[in-house]
Structures are given as C-alpha cells and as structure tokens.
C-alpha cells in the first residue's frame, strides 16, 4: 500500500484516500468564524485529551543524513541518509517530515523508515505537526494573493485526507484528534482529524496568524504576536491574551514565529540560528511563558529575556552556533552545530550536556513534558560580567548580539556596571558602533564615581604600556554625577597631548559645569597656548569649548580673556568665528541703567 | 625655510654676534618689543634678534611670548632659540611644552631641556620617555645620556626593555658601577645586538671603575660570540695598556681563547 502511494504520487494519493473533496466546508469563506459554542466545544475536547505520549526527541539534519536522538535515553535512535534536503525537519507526532529533492518524505520516528512520500509539485513544506499517530502536513506555494496550498492529514503510516486550499496556509498542529490549521493570515481552522471536516474557526483581529502550536499546555497561535485558545476565546486580542513583543529591536529582529507564508528557510539558513524560543505556560488569560522567560538564540549567544520588556536576564556564550532550541519548565535545551546538546537552567548555567555525534545544520527538538536533569555546572557569574564578556566576544558575526549585551549592561543599575562600561568604551578593538554605544551608555550612568576617578587617574604611557582612558565620555559622566573630585584629574587630561580635540571639548564642558574655580587658570593657559594653532575644525571647537568654560567659571574676567584672544594677531579664522560666537552667547544682560542711558542717548 | 632660518640663527650666535653689540640693552629691549608685534615677520625678527644677542635676559620675555601662543613656525623657532640660549631659566616653559599637543613641539622641548639642563630636567626627560612619539622618546633618551646623573636611570632601563633604540646608548653613558650587572642582565631579555651600544659606551668611559668594566669583560668572555669578541677587541684597541687596568688585561687574555 505504501509503495503504491509513493508510486502514484500526489494526485493518486488523494484519489485513493477518497477524500479529494471530503473536507466539506473546510476553508470555505462562508464558514462561520468565532462561534462561541464551536470554540468552547474545541476547548472542551482539548481539555479532555489524554497526554500525547510522544517521546522527547531531537532530530538533526546534517549535510547528508537525518539523525534521531532519544533525549531521555541519551542515545541515537537511527540515522538515515538523505539527499537534497530543502527544509528543516518537522516533528509531527510519530513522524518526521522532510522536504528532499522534489519529494516530501514522512519517516517513522521509531525506526527512521519511510512511512510515505509525495511529490512536491513545486510546493514548499510550510509546516507539520502531530499528536500520536495523527499528523498534519502543509505544502504551499507560499506568498499572499494567488497562493495555493495543500493540507495532508496522516493517520498512522498513510495519508487519510488531502485538502486543497486556494489560499496561503501556515504551520499546523494536532492535539486531541483536532487539526489546527492557520491560513489566510488571520484564520485558524479546526478540523476533525477523523473526517477532515472543519468544526470551528477562529478569526484573529489581534494580529497575523501563520503558526499554531498545540500541546498539553494549550493551543497557541500567531506570528509576530501570540494568542491562545481559551474557553471564551474570540477574535479580539483580549480574549486570546494577545502578546506582541517588540522583538524587531533584538539582534536579527526575530518574531516569536517567522512567517510561515514566506518561503521556508533552507536547512543551512542563518534563520535557524537567530530565533526567539519560548514555551507557553499552561493557563488562560494573558499569554505567559515557562519560567517567565523568552530565549533569543543568536549564533553562539543565548539570551534569556523578560517577556514584558525583553530586558536581558542572562546571556550564555556557546562554543559553537546554536542550531536548535526548545524551552520548557526550568530552562531551555539547545542543540549546536558541533552536535552538542546542552540544557541551560533558569540562571543560564548548563545542567546537562550530551553529544549526538553528528554535525547538524539544523536540529528540531521536542521535549514534551521532559525536563533534562542535572546540577548547575560552574560558578554563577554576575550578569554584568556575563554581559561584559558577551560584549567583548570577538566573533564578528555577533556584533548585533554584542550591542544587545551593551544595552543590557547599561540598563543595570548596579554602580559596578560603570566600570564594565568603561572597559568597553576603552576597548579600541570593538567595532565602532558597539564602542560608541558603550561610551554613550557610560556618559549617562547614574552612579559609579569611584570607577570614574580611577579611570581618570590613568594616562597614556609608552613605558607603562597604558593608553589614555576615554576622556570625553568620562568627562560627561563626571558632569552628570557632579563629581567635583574629578576636576584635578580632568585638568591633568587637559594638559595631556593624548587627549583628543573632541575629548578636550567634552572635558571643557564638564569643567565649566562642575564649577570649580581651580580650573580657571589651566583653561586660560590652554586658550592662549593653542589659540594660534587651532586651524582645523576639531581643534577650533575644542578651543571654543575651553573659552566657554572659562567664561562660565570666571565671568567677566573670562570674557575679557576671550576678547583678547579674539583680538590677538594669530587666531585662525576657524577658531575666530567660534570664539566670537562664544562672546555673543555669553553676553551679559544689559543693566537697566545702561539701557536707559543708551536709550536716552539715542533719543537725544 | 624655517630650518634654514634657524640654522642661520645658530651660526650667527657662534660666529657673527659681536659680544659688545649683543649685550646692548637697547637692542634687547627692541627685540623684546618686537615680540609683541601683530606682524609675524616682526615677531620672527624679534626671536632671531634675541637669539643673536645671546642674553639670558631674553629667556623670560621669550617664555612669556610662547605662553601667549604662537603659530607653529614661530613656536618652533622660539623653542630652538631657548635651546641655543642654554639658560636653565627656560625650564618651566620647556617642561610645559614637553606636553604640547604637537609632537614636533615636544621633540624640540625635549632637546631644549637637555641643552639647558634646568632643575628637574632629568625627571622631565624621564617622563618624555613615555611619549607616544618615538622621536620624542629618542630625544629624551639622548638627553638623559647627555645630562648624566642617575635620575633617569630606572626609566632608561625600562625604555631599553621597551626597545627604545636610543635608550641603551644613554644607559651605557650614565650607568653607575652598581647598575652594571642589571644592565648586562638585559642582554638576556632584549638581545645582545640591542645592548651592544650600551656595552660599548660602558667600556669606553673613563669615569667607570675598573671593577665594573671587568664585570663587563667577564660577561663578554662568557658569551664568546663574535659580537662579544668584537667589543672586547675594540676595548683593547681603544684603551692604552697603562690605563687599562685589570679589565683590559682580562680582555687581552680572553681574546685568544675566544678566537679558538
């Protein structure tokens, strides 16, 4: 029977199954959506469904093989050669589905042997899901207008129903004899797996729906946002507990689910390495997640994020790229490109590690209720140090992830974080934008005076093999913190030739703001000594900032000095204009008596 | 152009300035007056005149003029003039210029500090060994070697370890007997070739005790490399037998063995 199905291909399967049009009203636009009674009935069937019993498993796709790994037993189940894989593997109940060449092949998870296969007819596999011996597989042209799709419902080792849909269809799932099929961007049709008939339809007004995940924790659907089916679910956001994180600002901007209406990612696509991973917490109401965390995998980084604001709880740096991940209660299981499996606990430390002995391109993981056991490995490192280390990772692909680490570090209120930001701002090997972000964050810190002073005490020295600290951001920080103890240190950097002209400008602004008169003489000396050499723009701006600080600190006397410099014979034109501006902007308000006298003089 | 003018200024000082004229109070006042001119050419003439007059009373006005800011060419010229005048009173302004933002100014200041030798000169030059510009570091090392004394010796040791090319020579010039073992110890870390100038300087000094030179000879004999042999050979050749002491005798005895 199976070989015959293979031989006949797609159309033959449909004909043999006798279900080419057996779906009744399924996917028809006239089908009533958001019917409370129908949805409540579905919800009731879900609650009554027995545990799926599907074994926790990892399925790894390598360059030339599909490998199944028993997570509980920690052993390989089987390995099958594959050629021309075009998709990541999809776990669907007791099957694993893979697009190979021009065929879509379903293998038994128990032994890796082919259960059935169909010609793809130029369709892509947009998703597959299953529960026990029931599986749903969706093939589609992908895209929006004019899209065509096919939904296959398999029972055991054969296809029971085939439904052709004149629309885009996303990634389905199965639970309790019900098939949940997202389609047309906003619908979730619920089909009875036995008959293929549609029994209910949810139409989402909350956001785009291209995926459904159905398991013991419930039914979750969505794409950039997530909602879940509850007893009183309707189409509105509130009734499905809609959750839409601003994940576009994360490195790579992965949404909770990538669009299943787009062409699927190739097995070696970086998309498999840049993902948001999560598991819904059981319950109703607003969407909630196991351990109240989302996980972002970004090549070798795994970030644990708070769902409410995507703030970073911890970051794990992995030795190789993460090509698969699955969250569960107590942490997240990751699979890497070297064949490793690691379970990261709620504090980010590995608790279990294993090797599958293969080098996968992508790994599909299914944990079910399984939680890998093991004690935390290694010392718990402070989050600030984790973030500092991540920011300093030298893997050039990780720059966006490193930027996230810098932002996360800056968001920490601990005064000790200032020291870490100084290290980053001071690190000339960092990419420009990353270092700039660190310096900006440093300048805006609300605390860390001790670290500031310690950093300012350092000067560049060839013999001591030290470099100048980031004087500009430190000066801004000193000003923000009103740290007057920094004044003599800033003055020392004013006289240090290693202080760049832009940093001199920041330094002068800080000296003016800190209001310590001990800076007046050094500022005046600087103004005179360098006024005749300020021929380039940065030097001229530095000179103007020094002049302004001088006026701020010494008032009319400072203005008089600036005026003398303006009148001096060698002041370059670039600097001259800026110094005149300083004089104009610091012009004291005219005394009323003088104004009156001038007015009277004018009248006369 | 500026270099030619400065060279002319230096030559003028050496050969052409009649002392009686140069000491003229009127000319000094006139030159100082020119420093305040708004005309660059007059300021230049003023600086040149002060140099030619060779009067150390020119130092203060010149220092004041520098502190009030000069364009690069005039500033460089003013520093060179201070250097030529050779008055330690130029110390404060030169120390300040040793931290100038322009490396050429720091270079000129380091040289001028060495030639004027104001109080604190060695400390200032030791500091300049840490300059980011290799020319300034070199001038600082040369200056320390020229000044003598032990004030900058630790910095020179460190500079030698940091491969400042001019440092070993300076070290060889100013090392005390107590420093010789430490100096020879650097052969292991920076290499014999880098230390050759230092050893050569040590052996050529008249003010270094025979015992210290003997220690050098012993170490060179132990090394027995062609370079070590060449140094000993040069030492024997340059040192009269009667004044060579035990060090020279040891070198004479060692050379045939090293040849084998």
Describe it:
- The complex is a heterodimer of chains A (about 600) and B (about 260).
- With about 600 residues, chain A is of the alpha+beta class.
- Helices cover about 30% and strands about 25% of the residues of chain A.
- Chain A has 14 helices and 27 strands.
- In chain A, the strands form 7 sheets. Chain A has a 4-stranded antiparallel beta sheet with strand order 3-2-1-27, with no helix packed on it.
- In chain A, strand 20 and strand 21 form a beta hairpin.
- Chain A is elongated, with a radius of gyration of 33 Å.
- Chain B has about 260 residues and is mostly helical.
- Chain B has helices at about 1-15, 20, 25-35, 40-55, 60-65, 70-85, 90-95, 105-115, 120-130, 135-145, 155-160, 165-175, 180-190, 190-205, 210-225, 225-240, 240-260.
- Chain B is elongated, with a radius of gyration of 22 Å.
- Classes of the chains: A alpha+beta (about 600), B mainly alpha (about 260).
Total helical segments of chain A: 14
The oligomeric state is heterodimer
Kindly provide the radius of gyration of chain A, computed on alpha-carbon positions and rounded to a whole number of angstroms.
33 Å
Strand content of chain A: 25-35%
Largest interface by Cβ-Cβ < 8 Å: A-B, 21 and 29 residues
Separation of the first and last Cα atoms of chain A: 117 Å
What do the pLDDT scores of chain A average to?
A: 92
Q: What is the general shape of chain A?
A: elongated
Cα Rg of chain B: 22 Å
Shape of chain B: elongated
Assign the structural class of chain B, choosing from mainly alpha, mainly beta, alpha/beta, alpha+beta, or little secondary structure. mainly alpha
The stretches of 5 or more residues of chain A where confidence is low (pLDDT under 50) are: 1-22, 590-604
Q: Tell me roughly what share of residues is in helical segments of chain B.
A: over 70%
């Amino acid at each position: 029977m199976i070989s015959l199905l293979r031989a006949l291909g797609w159309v033959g399967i449909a004909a043999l199954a006798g279900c080419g049009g057996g779906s009744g009203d399924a996917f028809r636009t006239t089908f009533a959506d958001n019917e409370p009674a129908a949805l409540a009935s579905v919800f009731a069937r879900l609650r009554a469904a027995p545990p799926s019993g599907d074994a926790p498993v990892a399925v790894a796709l390598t360059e030339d093989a599909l490998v199944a790994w028993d997570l509980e037993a920690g052993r390989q189940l089987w390995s099958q050669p594959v050629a021309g894989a075009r998709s990541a593997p999809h776990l669907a109940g007791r099957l694993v589905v893979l697009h190979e060449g021009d065929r879509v092949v379903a293998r038994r998870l128990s032994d890796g042997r082919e259960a059935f296969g169909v010609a793809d007819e130029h369709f892509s596999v947009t998703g597959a899901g299953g529960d026990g011996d029931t599986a749903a597989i969706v093939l589609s042209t992908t895209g929006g207008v004019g899209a065509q799709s096919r939904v296959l419902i398999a029972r055991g080792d054969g296809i029971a129903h085939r439904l052709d849909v004149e629309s885009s269809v996303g990634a389905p799932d199965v639970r309790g004899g019900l098939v949940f099929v997202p389609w047309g961007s906003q619908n979730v049709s619920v089909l009875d797996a036995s008959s293929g008939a549609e029994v209910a339809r949810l139409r989402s007004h909350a956001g785009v729906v291209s995926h459904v995940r159905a398991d013991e924790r419930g039914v979750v659907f969505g794409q950039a946002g997530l909602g879940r089916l509850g007893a009183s679910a309707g189409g509105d956001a509130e009734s499905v507990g809609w959750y839409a994180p601003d994940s576009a600002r994360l490195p790579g901007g992965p949404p909770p689910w990538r669009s299943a209406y787009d062409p699927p990612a190739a097995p070696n696509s970086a998309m498999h390495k840049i993902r948001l991973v999560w598991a819904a917490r059981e319950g109703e109401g607003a969407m909630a997640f196991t351990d109240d965390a989302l996980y972002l995998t970004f090549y070798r980084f795994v970030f644990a994020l708070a769902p409410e604001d995507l703030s970073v709880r911890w970051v794990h740096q992995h030795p190789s790229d993460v090509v698969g991940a699955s969250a569960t209660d107590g942490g997240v299981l990751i699979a890497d490109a070297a064949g490793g499996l690691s379970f990261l606990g709620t504090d980010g430390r590995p608790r279990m590690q294993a090797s599958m002995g293969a080098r996968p391109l992508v790994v599909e993981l299914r944990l079910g209720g399984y939680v890998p056991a093991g004690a935390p490995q290694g010392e718990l490192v402070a989050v600030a140090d984790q973030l500092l280390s991540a920011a300093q990772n030298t893997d050039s692909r990780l720059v966006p992830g490193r930027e996230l680490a810098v932002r996360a570090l800056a968001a920490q209120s601990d005064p000790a974080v200032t020291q870490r930001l100084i290290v980053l701002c001071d690190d000339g090997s960092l990419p420009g934008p990353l270092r700039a972000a660190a310096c900006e964050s440093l300048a805006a810190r609300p605390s860390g005076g001790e670290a500031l002073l310690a950093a300012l005490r350092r000067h560049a020295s060839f013999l001591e093999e030290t470099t100048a600290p980031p004087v500009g951001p430190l000066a801004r920080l000193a000003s923000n913190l009103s740290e007057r103890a920094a004044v003599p240190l800033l003055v020392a950097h004013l006289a240090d030739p290693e202080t760049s002209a832009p940093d001199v400008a920041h330094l002068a602004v800080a000296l003016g703001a800190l209001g310590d008169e001990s800076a007046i003489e050094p500022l005046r000396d600087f103004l005179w000594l360098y006024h005749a050499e300020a021929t380039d723009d940065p030097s001229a701006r530095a000179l103007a900032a020094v002049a302004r600080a001088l006026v701020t600190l010494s008032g009319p006397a400072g203005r008089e000095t600036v005026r003398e410099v303006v009148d001096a014979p060698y002041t370059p034109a670039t600097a001259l204009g800026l110094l005149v501006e300083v004089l104009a902007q610091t012009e004291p308000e005219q005394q009323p008596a003088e104004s009156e006298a001038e007015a009277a003089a004018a009248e006369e | 152009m500026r270099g030619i003018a400065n060279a002319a200024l230096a030559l003028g000082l050496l050969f052409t300035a009649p002392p009686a004229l140069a000491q003229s109070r009127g000319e000094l006042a006139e030159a100082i007056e020119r420093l305040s001119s708004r005309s660059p050419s007059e300021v230049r003439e003023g600086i040149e005149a002060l140099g030619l007059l060779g009067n150390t009373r020119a130092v203060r006005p010149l220092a004041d003029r520098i502190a009030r800011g000069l364009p690069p060419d005039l500033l460089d010229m003013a520093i060179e003039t201070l250097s030529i005048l050779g008055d330690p009173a130029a110390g404060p302004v030169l120390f300040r210029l040793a931290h100038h933002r322009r490396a050429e100014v720091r270079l000129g200041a380091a040289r001028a500090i060495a030639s004027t030798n104001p109080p604190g000169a060695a400390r200032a030059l030791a500091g300049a060994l840490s300059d980011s510009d290799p020319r300034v570091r070199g001038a600082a090392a040369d200056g320390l070697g020229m000044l003598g004394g032990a004030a900058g010796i630790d910095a020179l040791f460190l500079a030698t370890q940091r491969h400042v090319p001019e440092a070993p020579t300076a070290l060889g010039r100013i090392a005390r007997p107590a420093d010789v073992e430490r100096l020879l110890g650097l052969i292991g870390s920076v290499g014999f070739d880098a230390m050759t100038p230092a050893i050569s300087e040590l052996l050529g000094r008249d003010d270094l005790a025979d015992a210290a030179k003997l220690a050098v000879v012993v170490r060179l004999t132990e090394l027995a490399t062609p370079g070590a042999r060449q140094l000993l050979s040069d030492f024997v050749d340059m040192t009269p037998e009667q004044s060579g002491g035990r060090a020279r005798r040891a070198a004479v005895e060692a050379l045939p063995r090293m040849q084998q």
